[in-house]
Amino acid sequence: MTHLFGTDGVRGPANQLLSPELTLSLARAIAVTLVAPGGRVIIGRDTRTSGPMLEAALAAGLTSEGVNVSLAGIIPTPAISFLIKDERADLGIVISASHNPPGDNGIKLFDRDGMKLSQEQERRIESAIDRPRIPAKHVGTITVLEAAAKRYAAFLSGTIDVDQVDFSGMSVVLDCAYGATAPIAPHVFRHLGASVTAIHCEPDGEKINVECGATHLDRLQAATRQNRADLGIAFDGDGDRVLLTAADGFIIDGDRMMGIAASYLASQDRLMPRAIVATILSNRGLELWLEERGIAVHRTDVGDRHVSHRMQKEEIQIGGEASGHIIFQDHSPTGDGILTAVKLLEVAHFLGRDLPSLAKEIPLFPQCARNIPCADPNVLATHPDAGTLLEAARARIGQRGRIVLRPSGTQPLLRIMVEAEDDALCNRTADQLEADLLTLLRTLES
Description:
By secondary structure, this protein is of the alpha/beta class. It has four domains: 10-146, Alpha-D-Glucose-1,6-Bisphosphate, Chain A, domain 3 (3-Layer(aba) Sandwich), CATH 3.40.120.10; 152-249, 3-Layer(aba) Sandwich (Alpha-D-Glucose-1,6-Bisphosphate, Chain A, domain 3), CATH 3.40.120; 252-360, Alpha-D-Glucose-1,6-Bisphosphate, Chain A, domain 3 (3-Layer(aba) Sandwich); 367-445, Alpha-D-phosphohexomutase, C-terminal domain (TATA-Binding Protein), CATH 3.30.310.50. Helix content is 39%, strand content 20%. It contains 15 helices and 18 strands. The protein has helices spanning 20-34, 51-63, 77-87, 119-128, 148-157, 185-191, 218-226, 254-267, 284-291, 304-314, 337-351, 355-360, 377-382, 384-397, 423-445, and strands at residues 10-13, 40-45, 68-74, 91-95, 104-110, 142-144, 171-175, 195-199, 231-235, 242-245, 251-252, 275-279, 296-300, 318-320, 326-328, 367-373, 402-407, 413-419. A six-stranded mixed sheet has the order 1-5-4-2-3-6, with helices on both faces. A five-stranded mixed sheet has the order 8-7-9-10-11, with helices on both faces. A hairpin with a 5-residue loop joins strand 17 (402-407) and strand 18. Helix 1 crosses helix 2 (51-63) and helix 8 (254-267) packs across helix 11. The longest helix has 23 residues, at 423-445. It is globular, with a radius of gyration of 22 Å. It starts with 9 loop residues before the first strand and ends with a helix.
């Protein structure tokens, strides 16, 4: 079996692509590849209806190979990263399809350091799935990890000094997307003194991410405006990403979040080295703004796993993606939506400013995206004629613009991202490149 893992674990329609049978086989392959008999794995999940079914299959597969399992229940993805280290477990598994619709589900894996697995480790798991099985001598145990959510909430609250930082007088609207942050995020922000209005904060797997959360900001923007709140905070279904909105509708994306945090730490001589890690999709405007402040931007492929591994390798403190996956390496090796919002509000407190005004100081270039459905996006992306079309498009937008052409890691799509200083030029270039590539695709298919 090949190409089971995408850019962020295994993901697909629950009970179809991601069936109990596949999940059981995957769990056994994980056990024989990464965990010795008698080792321990922590499993958490979001609120999706299919979560308990896949949890049972994972637990069965792992214990059948002699591995002990601790069930953390409904909990954000980054909490598993925290709990692995806190419990000194061998591995962590999250059952979640992140921002995908309710019918999907997924499996994400974290090593004993709380980091997502490398591609090499994923390939080893894939190659082990179809091996003949040798029954283990002993069966592992299944236990409930008590107070997992409370311990994670305490960790989040402890990432700032409450004697110096108080969110009293601040009003926030939280949109938890009916997902894994629902039982935790309101508690954390109230504990830190903020006045909280919670929307979509019931853990409901039939509604997770549906017209709410970090992928659908309209309702949060309306609630922030109606409540005259200082800030709107939206998480995705599993809580590893966050987007912020002001009362006037202004959106603070991951690029601006990284800019705010990095520039503040640099001003305090606490950003060592003076660099962040971003992906190829992060905005050129952020890069130029940070360069003016003596802060370099190191780019990786798309995916917070690539960001995290690069940060660890080069000992860089801040990194992330424009989509809202932000990593504060001093506190966690993976993206954490609640942690990100807390740390940014801490920065705003020390600067005596509000986050929207800080974010508006970072000028971003217009960006536009196009998607081309195709059976094998790699074939189209690597075709010589596609390279010629790409170079012609880059010539049209000039040296300060950028174009990224990449196969989707989760869907049969070729993704186009165009960035230019002028919005009209950006859209014209994207439209033309999309049309040219569609023409090429039809030629290849004929």
